[in-house]
Specification:
This protein is α/β, with parallel strands linked by helices. Helix content is 61%, strand content 9%. It folds into 3 domains: 120 residues, P-loop containing nucleotide triphosphate hydrolases (Rossmann fold, 3-Layer(aba) Sandwich), CATH 3.40.50.300; 62 residues, Helicase, Ruva Protein, domain 3 (Orthogonal Bundle); 125 residues, Zinc Finger, Delta Prime, domain 3 (Up-down Bundle), CATH 1.20.272. Helix 3 links the parallel strand 2 and strand 3.
């Protein structure tokens, strides 16, 4: 049999694959009889791996990642479509693709009419689905999580399930088997939390919400944040906003911005939303001012915290 797993949720692809392989017998023997291929492979390589006879096991497993993303030519696809229905009965061939294939893709069209093929699409969960995934992931590991913590994790990390899984494992260890993960735990332990607060700060700057900006900035300082760290995050954020605004004015949307800037989709969406609160000249002026603050602070001509307070006052006043 052959399987196609496609879509951006590669974390769930691998988890689903692991579940299928667990049903094929002794894990060590399955591993011994597994071949991994990736990217551009020749038809001969693929056929040779699938035709190999299993050694002391029921099945031969072949896992091919990113084959169609590498855009095989028409001749390859024609041979593949003609050959797949003739796979040896003991072979389990898995195609894993990091993007969803179009409905007209030859392999999807073949699977519609071939009982030996299976296709499953894995889209990244969002909104309620993402929060449900977090709760289920915690429950399956015997843990407990507060509703507010679920919301904070979903907002901070987004649909990157691999990163979410890592954060949840860390939070479960911190809370202990009898404890409940709280929003405060997420803010304390997650590296995404500090970044999320910078997002909030820039959101407030874009909305000219002077009181909220001052409160958020002072809260970070009171929590012991290093001023130069906060400053570096400001520079990074406004550099991204400047790049995003430039692309937006050339007609790009969030999807295209994510590709060009090599960002996760949810990050690009946040940047486009934040950039809408500024004009391009405003962002250029803010970025130049940040660079001047950097020079002045490093040469002892200004106190960094004071300079940042003045910057925040100027931005929220619309200067």
């Amino acid at each position: 049999m052959y399987y196609l797993f496609h879509g951006k949720d590669t974390y769930s692809q691998h988890a689903f694959l692991a579940g299928l392989l667990a049903k094929e017998g002794d894990a060590d023997m399955v591993s011994l009889n597994t071949t991994h291929l990736s990217g551009k492979v020749t038809f001969s390589e693929l056929q040779g791996a699938c035709d190999a006879v299993p050694f002391l096991a029921r099945v031969r497993v072949v896992i091919v990642e990113g084959l169609f993303a590498a855009a095989p030519d028409k001749a390859f696809m024609e041979r593949l479509v003609a050959w797949l229905p003739t796979l040896p009965a003991a072979t389990r061939l898995f195609f894993l693709e990091p993007d969803a294939l179009a409905a007209r893709h030859p392999l999807l069209q073949l699977i519609e009419n071939d009982k030996t093929g299976r296709a499953k699409r894995f889209d990244q969960p969002e909104g309620d689905q993402l929060e449900r995934w977090i709760r289920t992931h915690v429950d399956e590991r015997g843990g407990h999580i507060a509703p507010a913590a679920v919301q904070v994790l979903a907002a901070n990390v987004g649909s990157d399930l691999s990163a979410l899984g890592n954060e949840i494992e860390k939070l479960l260890l911190y809370a202990g088997p009898e404890g409940t993960i709280t929003a405060e735990d997420v803010a304390r332990l997650s590296p995404y939390a500090s970044e999320a607060e910078i997002w909030d700060l820039v959101d407030a700057l874009g909305g000219r919400q002077s009181a909220q900006v001052a409160t958020l900035f002072q809260r970070k300082l009171n929590a012991g944040a290093e001023p130069f760290y906060l400053f570096s995050m400001f520079i990074r954020q406004f550099r991204l906003l400047l790049q995003t605004k430039s692309l937006m004015e050339s007609g790009e949307r969030a999807g295209g911005i994510a590709q060009q800037m090599k960002l996760r989709p949810f990050v690009a969406e946040k940047l486009t939303r934040q950039a809408a609160g500024f004009s391009l000249p405003q962002l250029e002026q803010i970025y130049r001012r940040l660079l001047q603050i950097d020079i002045d602070a490093k040469t002892g001509q200004t106190d960094l915290v004071t300079a940042l307070h003045l910057l925040i006052a100027g931005v929220t006043a619309g200067e």
